Amino acid sequence: MKLICIGRNYTEHIEELENEKPTDPVIFLKPDTAILLKKQPFFIPEFSNDVHHEVELLVKINRVGKYIDRKFADKYYNEIGLGIDFTARDLQRELKEKGLPWEKAKAFDGSAVIGEWLAKDNFEDVDNIDFSIHKNDVIVQQGNTSHMLWKIDEIIEYVSKYFTLKIGDVIFTGTPAGVGKVVANDKLKGFIEDKALFSITVK
Ligand code: ZN
Questions:
Q1: 172 alpha carbon to ligand 1 midpoint, in Å?
Q2: How far apart are the CA of 93 and the centre of ligand 1, in A?
Q3: Looking at residue 112, which CATH number applies to its domain?
Q4: Within a domain: residue 200?
Q5: Ligand 1 center–CA 7 separation, angstroms
Q6: Is residue 190 part of a domain?
Q7: What is the mean pLDDT of the chain?
Q8: What is the pTM (predicted TM-score) of this model?
Q9: Residue 103 has what pLDDT?
Q10: Looking at beta carbons, which pairs linking 12-21 to residues 24 or more positions away fall under 8 Å?
Q11: What residues have a C-beta under 5 A from ligand 1, the ion?
């Protein structure tokens, strides 16, 4: 399985990193080795001094598809989740400056947190879902999927032009504003509406 991640999908986050607004979605992949194993702490890798949390709404693909039209995209997932796209921001900045791919900063072991899944039927409108992350019991990021530049169905249409989607693939739909550094002993808790879907300790 693969993890497909969307970058720069919320205007306020684009502004906080002083990035340009893209005309197409920014896409990168993480390998399955990036998934943080359940109940394990997240270890800050030795090659970074500035790892950031990026909380993101997740979609789990449940049918094989290629060139999926956005009109039918909702048939390709029935679970919604929440995760973290951990990012070594210092390394990413270096790579960006050199025009190099971001993988070392984004796809390292443990960089993908995937919380519990919720049936899509729980939601009246997937384009209006509130989610948040708390660091040491303080809300540090909150978003609503209505603020995404590319909505879930548009993302599925777009990424499936390039990559065949397979059962079990997970899409990280991008982070809202409020990304920030994590340090040892931080506790990160993720919520969709009032449901806690993951709880992670940083080491
Ligand atoms: Zn991200």
A1: 7
A2: 14
A3: 3.90.850.10
A4: no
A5: 5
A6: no
A7: 96
A8: 0.96
A9: 96
A10: 12/147, 12/176, 12/177, 13/174, 13/175, 13/176, 13/177, 13/178, 13/179, 15/177, 16/177, 16/178, 16/179, 17/179, 21/149
A11: 54, 85, 175
Q: Which residues pair with 82 in a beta bridge?
A: 57
Report how far ligand 1's centroid is from the alpha carbon of 176 (Å): 9
CA of 185 to the centre of ligand 1 (A): 22
In the reported structure, the alpha carbon of residue 21 is separated from the centroid of ligand 1 by a whole-number distance in angstroms of 15
**pLDDT tens digits, 97-112:** 999 999 999 999 999 9
What's the confidence (pLDDT) of residue 57?
A: 98
Tell me how far the alpha carbon of residue 54 lies from the centroid of ligand 1, in angstroms: 5
Q: What is the tally of structural domains in the chain? A: 1
94 within domain boundaries: yes
For the stretch 14-47, pLDDT in tens is 788 888 878 889 999 999 999 999 989 999 999 9
In a domain, 202, yes or no: no
Strand order in the sheet with 87-88: 87-88, 51-53, 180-181
Cα(22) to centroid of ligand 1, in Å?
15
Q: Which pLDDT value is given to residue 22?
A: 80
pLDDT of residue 11: 86
Provide the 3-class DSSP secondary structure of residue 147. helix
Report yes or no: 118 and 78 within 8 Å, Cβ to Cβ: no
Taking the centre of ligand 1 as the mean of its atom positions, its distance from the CA of residue 133, in whole angstroms, is 14
Regions of the chain short of the pLDDT cut 50: none
CA 53 to centroid of ligand 1, rounded, Å: 9
